[in-house]
Specification:
alpha+beta; two-stranded antiparallel sheet; 12 helices; 9 strands; 43% helix; binds 2-acetamido-2-deoxy-1-O-phosphono-alpha-D-glucopyranose; binds magnesium ion
């Protein structure tokens, strides 16, 4: 494809000669740029609709990556943003259409949508657990809230109800079973938000998009190199970070699998992840550990209702490939919620057992 113009405003080593679409995130547009010096970079256009303030987003991302690199003394422990030619302080470029771009080093490695082996998933748990651990003494209150109320599930339900009322696209009828299923779980869905407000769960620096495909793995060793996608780094709850990983990676089907009956929680992978996460994130409180299963449950429910709301609104937030894509995603995610309800006692037992083995 033609080289995206923004590729030329960053201080790359060599001139851009190749531009390819890259990855399959739902939010930003991503390209891989190769230069005549043989260097490779990732170039991204930040989605303005989702992120109202890209400068704040980049300020967070820079602060966190610098902190991790300095603390670990390991240059590869976090991604490197590339400065712009005009040396913008926040390492981003605003083009004439007021679109924001950023670039970072492509360090090789690969990301997985589904774990191929237990070890892959374990590695991602260690990566996100380590992220949590490394940032335990980062001043969380200095970070911007890039998407206000991002994991406020109580507010997510309010927004869903608003969309049902508006019924903008006349899609409510079609989504009736999913709507009923979701609304019946509104009270339980608010559990963590209430614990956050009461201070029962501490505020942490969280990643907020801890899917397996946001962990970069080394091609040879398959060990975690670093975590990617720092757009949603903000103050939040550790159990949300844990939960997002589970709902995505310990699931037996893809997020948009068309047959919801194929979507289950894999208890074995749940245990694998719990182990890696608790081994690395040693500073969690007992209450946080106890609420890990609730983190998984609430995250599946929350993303389920976000897909559902977006379907009702006419697919304005998540990129879709076909008309019912968001409804399919919602249905499949809610099937995972139902399966977690079946497996609730097992989830709690596993967390308690692993915690006993790992935490002294
Ligand atoms: C979005 O674009 P991606 O896949 O990194 C979304 C997440 C959802 C996810 C669902 C900023 O992430 O919250 O869990 O889709 N990111 C944002 O697949 O809304
Ligand atoms: Mg993301």
């Amino acid at each position: 494809m033609e080289i995206v113009k923004a590729a030329y405003v960053f201080r790359t080593e060599g001139e851009p000669i190749l531009c390819e679409e890259f990855g399959h995130g739902h939010i930003n547009s991503t390209y891989k740029i190769t230069t005549d010096a043989g260097r490779e970079y990732v170039l991204q256009k930040i989605n303005k609709y989702v992120f109202g303030n890209p400068v704040q987003l980049m300020t967070n991302a820079n602060a966190v990556t610098n902190f991790i690199r300095e603390k670990s003394g390991d240059d590869r422990a976090a991604i490197h943003f590339i400065p712009t030619i005009d040396a913008c302080e926040c390492y981003c470029y605003r083009d004439e259409e007021a679109e924001f771009w950023r670039m970072y080093d492509y360090v090789g490695g690969f990301c997985l949508d589904q774990p191929e082996t237990d070890q892959d998933f374990y590695e991602s748990a260690v990566a996100f657990g380590r992220f949590q651990h490394m940032l335990a003494d980062f001043p969380a209150d200095t970070l911007f809230e890039t998407i206000p109320e991002f994991h406020n599930t109580v507010d997510r339900f309010r927004q869903l109800e608003e969309s049902i009322q508006e019924n903008l696209m006349r899609r409510v009828k079609k989504a009736r079973p999913e709507i009923e299923f979701a609304l019946a779980r509104k009270e339980r869905g608010g559990t963590l938000q209430r614990m956050r407000e009461s201070g029962e769960l501490p505020l942490r620096v969280t990643h907020n998009d801890t899917k397996l495909n946001n962990v970069l793995l080394d091609r040879k060793t398959r060990k975690a190199l670093c975590v990617l996608d720092l757009d949603t780094v903000m103050p939040g709850l550790s159990v949300h970070d844990f939960g997002d990983s589970i709902r995505f990676g310990a699931a037996t089907a893809a997020e948009d699998a068309k047959d919801p009956s194929t979507m289950k929680l894999d208890l074995h992978l749940f245990e694998v992840y719990t182990r890696g996460f608790l081994e690395a994130a040693t500073a969690l409180t007992d209450r946080e550990v106890e609420m890990l299963p609730m983190g998984a449950y609430v995250m599946a429910l929350e993303v389920g209702i976000r897909f559902l709301k977006d379907y009702l609104d006419g697919d304005v937030y998540f990129k879709t490939k076909y008309r019912e894509h968001n409804l399919v995603r919602a249905r499949t995610q809610l099937a995972l919620v139902a399966d977690m309800e079946e497996k609730w006692n097992d989830m709690q037992r596993i967390v308690a057992d692993v915690a006993r083995q790992v935490r002294q």
